[in-house]
Every structure is written in structure tokens, then in C-alpha cells.
Amino acid sequence: MKFGLPPADGTRFRSAWADLAGVGRDHRWGGYSRHGFDDADVQLRQWFTEQATRRGLDVENDRNGNVWAWWGEPGPDSVVTGSHLDSVPGGGAFDGPLGVISGLLAIDELKLRGVTPARPVAVACFLEEEGGRFGLPCLGSRLMTGTVDPDHARRLHDPDGVSLADAAKRSGLDPSGMGPDPARLASVGTFVELHIEQGRLLTAADPAAVVGIGSEIVAHGRWRITVTGQGNHAGTTRWTDRHDPMIPAAAGVLAARREIANFPGAVATVGRIHPIPGGTNVIASSVQFWLDARHESAVVTATLVDAIVSAVRQEAAAEGCAVVVQRESMSDRVVLDAGLGLQLSALLDVPVIPTGAGHDAGILAPHVPTAMLFVRNNSGISHAPEEHADVADCVIGVDALADVLEELVK
Amino acid sequence: MKFGLPPADGTRFRSAWADLAGVGRDHRWGGYSRHGFDDADVQLRQWFTEQATRRGLDVENDRNGNVWAWWGEPGPDSVVTGSHLDSVPGGGAFDGPLGVISGLLAIDELKLRGVTPARPVAVACFLEEEGGRFGLPCLGSRLMTGTVDPDHARRLHDPDGVSLADAAKRSGLDPSGMGPDPARLASVGTFVELHIEQGRLLTAADPAAVVGIGSEIVAHGRWRITVTGQGNHAGTTRWTDRHDPMIPAAAGVLAARREIANFPGAVATVGRIHPIPGGTNVIASSVQFWLDARHESAVVTATLVDAIVSAVRQEAAAEGCAVVVQRESMSDRVVLDAGLGLQLSALLDVPVIPTGAGHDAGILAPHVPTAMLFVRNNSGISHAPEEHADVADCVIGVDALADVLEELVK
């Protein structure tokens, strides 16, 4: 392992990173809000295209809103790295862009090292990995791999009612072309995604570790739960006359908290809730809330969700409300390529850790030998403005990625 | 009592009512969303000005965003009727506009009856009675009566960050003039507000009653509760590492439901909740929610709120979250003028009922002899699209208001 770049590389990282600092800042919530095909996303794609072109890479916009920058002729058995440029609402700076920038800088590093790759190399940016705008995470990689029906995807819409098809069109992408891209998928020989660590598992495995290798992505999914009651006046409606959908929704939030104690290793979260119409002096007519649930096992995840939904239904029956549950996405546990993991382990000698976060790597893994590298996050926080990786650690991450690519392109 | 107008009046009511049917419709939530100084509000003010002018009434825009239409020279000891034109988000058609339209039609009726008023008569439309945009209900009547500090009011802002001062300015009203208007207040000798009934008390008092007289408005207030935790990733943050503000907020919703059983006659509602940033895969960094609480007694209301807040604080302590409670408004119980109530009772012979809803009448009552008339709502629902009064009942309401005005202007 050749960790420890000259100081110049810290400068190089800082300079590349500074380009992104102002794009998509969220002045209401702090951090960044960058979502598929929004202004920030368009700016970031332009930035990526410029950066890639400046490096002599060939940029391709694929039919699913993903952008690819090729070093060498695009072709079979390529080594692809990259990540995504979008964020959750009010998210951190690193989740996504760190993998893209590290891909570009790793190519710089390989060139400095005088490496002539025997396989084509690409950096890819996948569309809307967080699902922050259209609700479905890993939208670009799901479309490319055929993991989502393109008709279903085109009809997804953002909170303002803009469909994915319309948003793509406005951004210059023909939505009718969206869908499985087997030729492109077949050209990817290996995929390596570098990402900021999003919890505390890396440091728990080795307090000195700066980089880790991913072993698996736990099963995870999103459920949209709609409780319908009867809108009414908050002052004049006696409590015996109420059908208030907030009550079962609140019971769902607390059930999520309570039930995870019964499912060791599981997490369940309600971070988004939307009473309609949302007036202070109004009993809501309906409430939508979203349940995010995860566990190593998809079966346990489903059982956990059932337990939470059952608590919502019970309260809804008492309140005279109706409940509709829609699964927005469900990703089974993904074990990343074992052989590739062993190869990287031997090369880097760093901890191997699982992750509770979903990634485009998890969507590609069933199709392509896939690996993940994690860079230390000394806040332990992600999906929030406090998410942080030190520049020194990011530089080590770039070097590790360069080592991996150098090994793979031989 | 002269209830039972000729059929022509049903036509007249229908025709006047039809003017408003298309203004401010809420296509997302159904019903209407009309808020102080928004497009719908501006359209409704124009409509009111036109209607009043067509009737030969003199229109005045006062310094607090309220509009007055005078029959006769504005002057002391006037008899004022009216209500408001704004709605809650996704509210019904009647709450507010019914009182305004009934005021105009009652003047038509008095003219048909050949009444020559001995006192000036006016129809008033008060600004933002629901507080749906700037959070403070009865904004116009509060400003006029000095019940809110104008500096505080000017700084109130809507969810998009637009201040009341800026919204007023854009709508052509100089916000620096906002504040107590003692001369105008002194000119009001009697105030009578006609309103759709918002619950089931009228029918409970007399199943055949179409109109009721108001006795009192119960104490009511709004509290904004902010719970601050630590935003984080919904998948990678172990539950022991969480400081999730949704948990205490949900506990608050359920506590409101539970505690009203301990305070007979009280109601408490959470109809509005706003997690920040509100991402599906994000543990919120903070949650704001609004508690609406009401009871005949202000002391009981405060005790109820304390009990709910204490449940929130207890859960917040366990979750490692902080809680800030801000009282946005509090109106003590208002007993409407007893002498005036007796006079109207003798005239109309209809049930006398209290109301759990706030009204501009409640703000004026401490300053001016004030009465309320309620028109039957056969849905029993208010603050929702299902709110409904039959045309036949509305016509009887107009006639009752005309009777009252005729009696008062003698």
C-alpha cells in the first residue's frame, strides 16, 4: 500500500473540492440539496463534463441520465469507478461527490505514476442515487440494469408534481430512451465505488483505519404509508367525533422506535411526514409518512415492517381511519464480490466492513464484480450537514482508489 | 321572525355565491386555499370592492389590510357586520365568505324592505382570520384593536420567508401604517358576525334550528414546539446512537389525544408537523409541530398544554433532544355581549350556543358590543372541503341577519 501522497495532492484535492462548495447549498436547512435534474444537478454535471474534458476523457451521457467519462476507448472489460452527485435534502458534502472527485483524481494519480491501462477506465455519475426528488433511490443504476420498469420510473413525480419524464426532457434527455442498457452494462468488467463512511463501523473495526473495504449492503426498503381520516376543525370537533390520521401516524413513528429493539441489528426510521392540508387549526384529512427499514436479512426487514404497520392499523381502526401501505423500493441484501474483496484486501490491508446504506454499487453488484471503498468520516454523521471527512483522509482515499485501479487495469 | 324569503332570494344567493366558486381552489388538497395577500385574497378583495361599489356602498381600505363597505356616512355608533375572506389550507367554501356575502345580501334585503337606517351600516372583511399564511389568526382585527404589537406582526413571515410587511407592500398597503386604529374602532357601535357553524352544537340544541346565536368563544391558542436532535443517516446510525426528534414529536401527538380525556370539554390537535430536512432516508435534525388547544377556561387550556409539553420533554430527555416551546397566540374565553344576545334572542327565537372556533368577533368583543349568528352546517365538518351549508339555510341566514340589522339600525 502506497498511502501518503506528497502535500501537493492535498492541494489538488482541496482545489477540486472547492469547485463544488457553492453548488446546491441549502440555506434553509444547511448542507446541500442537490436532486436529479434540478439546477444544482445540472451545474454539477456541467462541472463533471468540464473536468473530464480537461483531462482528455471522453464524456458520454447515457440514456438513463448517467454520465460517463472514459479514459481509453469505451469497450468491454472496462474498470469503472464513480458514485453520484445528488444529495438528500440538507445533506452533507461528501456522500456521492467524494466518489466522483476521487475517481477523477485517481486517474490523475495513475497518469502521474505513468500507468498505461490495459483495460478501459471510466468514471460514472449515476442519476438520483438518494431518491431525494423522485422517491426511488439509485434511479440511474436501476434504470440501466433493468431493476425498475422504465414506464413506472417515467411516471415517478417530485413533490411539485413534475414527472421524471418531464424533468428529464427539460434537462435535454429524451425520456423515451430510458430503460435497460445491456450493452453498456456488458462493457463494465469491474465496478469500484468509493464513498464516505456513513456510520462508525470503520473506526470500530480499527481506530486508526482511514480506508475500509465493503463486504455487503444490508437489505433495505422504503414504505409510504397513507392514513386517511376526516379533515375537520381543530376547535369545534369533539374528540369522540374525530377521525384524526395524525394519531395512527404518530403511533407508527413510536412503533418503529420500539420494534427495532425486538429485531437486533435492524433500524427503522420515519424522517418524512406530510399531513394534508397541514393547517395549525385543522384536523388533517390524511397523513403520508415514509418508513425506512433495514436489516441484514430481507425476511427480518419485512417482519419488522409488518410489526410497525400492524401498530399503525390498530390505532387507525380505533380512530376510524383507513391505511394504505405502498412499498416504494426494496433491495435485498447484497454481498459484494468475494474474490474482488479478497484481492483488494490483500492490496490495501484495511478493515472489511458492511454498510447499512444503499449504493449504486449494490444495484450493479448482481451484474458485475463490484467492490466498495469507504473513507473515514470522523463525525460519524451522514445525510446531514455535519458529515465530514478530513482532507488528509480524502487524499489517502484517492491514493487507495488509484492503487486499486492500477491493480485492476493491469 | 320573518324567515322564509321568496324564491328569488335563493337565486340571488346562488348568483352571488357563484362569483367565489372559482377563486383560490386548491387542486392538490381539494377545497380552497386563500391566504392573506395571496392571489386569491387579492381577487376576493377586488370582487368585494366591485360588489360594494355596485350597491352604492363606499369602500375603504383601512391601514391594517381590512376592507370596509359603508352604507351611509362612516361615523360613530355604526352597525358593522362581516367576516373574513381567507381560508385554512384546503378549507371549505363557507368559513368566512358566507358572513361577507350575507352582509351584502342583508343590505340588499333591507333596501327591498325600504329600511332607512338611523345608524351607519358597514360590511367589513378582516385580514387573515385563519392565520393560514402568517401563523397568527385574526391578524387584521388584532392589529386594529391593538391586540398584537405591529412590529411583531410586520415581522411575521410565511413558510416561504415572505414577511407580512413585504406581502402588504406588494399588495399596495403601506405596512408602516399598521397598528391600533382607535378612531375606526370607536366608530363601531355594534358588531355582528354571521358564520357557518363549525361543529354539531346547533343541531344538538335543536335538530330543526337553521340559525343560532353565539354566547361565547372558548379560550384557545397555538403553540409551536421545536424538537432538535441530530440529523443522520437512516440506515447506518445504530438506534443507540440516535437523537431523533420525530420520537418526542410523535409522543406529543399521542399525548394531545390522551390528555384531552383528562380535561373534559377540552380539545387538542396537531395538524401541522414539519421535520427538517424531511428526507425518507434521513433521521431529521429537528421537527417543528404546532399544538392547537382549547377549553372554556384559559387556565385549563394552559394546564392541558403543560401536560402535553411535559410528555414531549420526557421523551426528548430520553432521546437526547432539546425542546423549545413558543406560544404563537392565546385568546382568553370571550363572553359575547349579554344584552345584545338577549335582544337578538327575543327577535329570532333560535338556540344560543357557544363555539370552539376563534373569530374576529372574539377580538372585537372586548371593545364593542358584539354578537354572532351561526348558520347550520349539515356536514358537521369545517376547515375541510366537506364543509357545507344548504342554499336554503344560507338564505334563512341572510334573512336573520337582515332582521338583526333592521332591529339595530332603528
Mind explaining what this structure looks like?
The structure is a homodimer. With about 400 residues, chain A is α/β, with parallel strands linked by helices. Chain A folds into two domains: about 10-215 and about 335-410, Zn peptidases (Aminopeptidase, 3-Layer(aba) Sandwich), CATH 3.40.630.10; about 220-330, Alpha-Beta Plaits, CATH 3.30.70. Helix content of chain A is about 35%, strand content about 25%. Chain A has 13 helices and 15 strands. In chain A, helix 3 (about 95-110) crosses helix 13 and helix 9 (about 245-260) packs antiparallel against helix 10 (about 300-320). Residues about 1-5 of chain A have low confidence and may be disordered. At the A-B interface, strand 8, helix 9, strand 9, strand 10 and strand 11 of A face strand 8, helix 9, strand 9, strand 10 and strand 11 of B.
What class would the helix/strand composition of chain A place it in? Answer: alpha/beta
The amount of beta strand of chain A, in percent, is 15-25%
CATH homology group of the largest domain in chain A? Zn peptidases
According to DSSP, the number of beta strands of chain A is: 15
The major beta sheet of chain A can be summarized as: 9 strands, mixed
Overall domain count of chain A: 2
Task: Give the ordered list of helices and strands of chain A.
Answer: HHEEEHEHHHHEHEEEHEEEHEEHEHEH
**Poorly predicted ranges of chain A (pLDDT <50, ≥5 residues)?**
1-5
The chain pair forming the largest interface, with residue counts per chain, is: A-B, 75 and 76 residues
What name is given to the CATH topology of the largest domain in chain A?
Answer: Aminopeptidase
Net shape of chain A? globular
CATH class of the largest domain in chain A: Alpha Beta
Oligomeric form: homodimer
Number of helices of chain A: 13
Q: Whole-number radius of gyration of chain A?
A: 22 Å
Mean pLDDT of chain A: 94
Second-tier CATH architecture of the largest domain in chain A: 3-Layer(aba) Sandwich
Percent in helix of chain A = 25-40%
How many angstroms does the end-to-end distance of chain A come to? 16 Å
